[in-house]
């Protein structure tokens, strides 16, 4: 009995190192490491496991474990089966493991096919699918029956078609691609994903949706580890009833920050505002916006829109109390109103717009004088050190204005060549009705020069007076009445006796040529526009098909040379080609163009 046991032990030990019949030096040979049960019939060898261990065979560094293996020596082809709950396992080195219910492998083509609960694991991710092709020579895996990749820090990625490049640790996903992360969900048609870095490259119409925002682009990059990305081609971000657009958008989810370069546009539906420029920064948590490079803010009103332009804009505050600051060469245009100042501060809640003088230059500096606040309403020009314009936030119409220090009101006398009606004083308070100035009070040290005409438009005389204060009544852009309060002196002189050298009050400065008469005029003083060159993300380059000519040649060479009618086992699980126009629409292979109803950029 002891002799029989010893003999049995020797046989089992030898079986652990059996080379499948063939030339031992042949690189196509498979080495059996363990197989307690072996039988051969019709030149086909079957290997079975025992109660303690699975069948174990090796080919070129790939270890395969299974419950049953069937080897076809003429084709150099092996089939591996499993029994529940065990699995067929293919292990390459210490990094790649594939398990499935069934695996077949050709040593001639070095192509493996797995099906049934297939799981491919590498250090950074796990792929699950129902069918998987693995090319050992190219170190690539491919599926076309829906697959799911799980990466702890990035989330879960599903697609109809996928390909894994083991050398570069890269996945390529095609068709109905969905990346689900605890913070957001990405939907796209093509996605290149690197498992080590967590970098994702997006191609074609794509969206990234979270609870608080939505991103759209047709070309993009996203770092799933650090939660930031770049987006191009029709790139947009939506949040809190705002839409942000730009040729190139950078987005950092961790700090709720976005910046846009070239052709920036933000549409705010709550405040009925559109902001434009060629560079902008948006801080969502702070509810703030910075714009420069041809910056423009448009506020829509029922009857008209107000356009504001300056070198820079800063918009802060929540929708219910928004503040807009425009500074350096700020301008306003409206059909019945225009203005200029060094800077303009608007409180949208109160309707107060403050036109502020340039404080960093002296009053005698030519540059400072040029940027001194000026406001035009129809034919009237108002200037001063500071101007406050107040609107009714409910009716969205002008209510009143205040001019502080060196207030000056000028209107051109329409019937004379160079005559100007002028009123000046320390302060000015004006009232509007239907956006037209109808009442003006000049307070303290008031002076006036007024061309007095009768009902026929004939000049009666020119009134030049001084007074403590002056009240002016205006209608249809004409002065109806001037009231001198606490009159000091003055007289009405015929035009022939009125001295030309006294026809201008001190500080007179008619600036009509500076008035913007259109939206385009807001930019006439700007330097030529030079857009920043955007390097941009690289276009999608379709890879060679997984089943390329090289692999097809390898599969063809695996045919049974002795019996050409015999099945080529290495080819039996290749994807079926489209047979005719009545067959079902073939799924696009990875690296081949996707069918599309319309052509889109970024593909």
* Low-pLDDT runs: 1-27, 578-587, 591-603
User: How much of the polypeptide forms β-strand, as a percent range?
Assistant: over 45%
Number of strands: 38
Largest sheet: 38 strands, antiparallel
Q: C-alpha Rg, in Å?
A: 41 Å
Question: Averaging pLDDT over every residue, what do you get?
Answer: 85
Q: What structural class do you assign from the helix and strand content?
A: mainly beta
Determine the fraction of residues in helical runs and give it as a percent range: under 10%
User: Cα distance, first to last residue?
Assistant: 74 Å
Count, helices: 3
User: Which shape, going by the Cα principal axes?
Assistant: rod-shaped
Task: Describe the overall structure.
The protein has a 38-stranded antiparallel beta sheet that branches. The chain has three helices and 38 strands. The N terminus and C terminus are likely disordered. β9 and β10 form a beta hairpin. The protein is rod-shaped, with a radius of gyration of 41 Å. It starts with a helix and ends in a 46-residue tail after the last helix. The protein is mostly beta strands and 603 residues long. InterPro entries: OstA-like_N. It holds the Pfam family OstA_2.
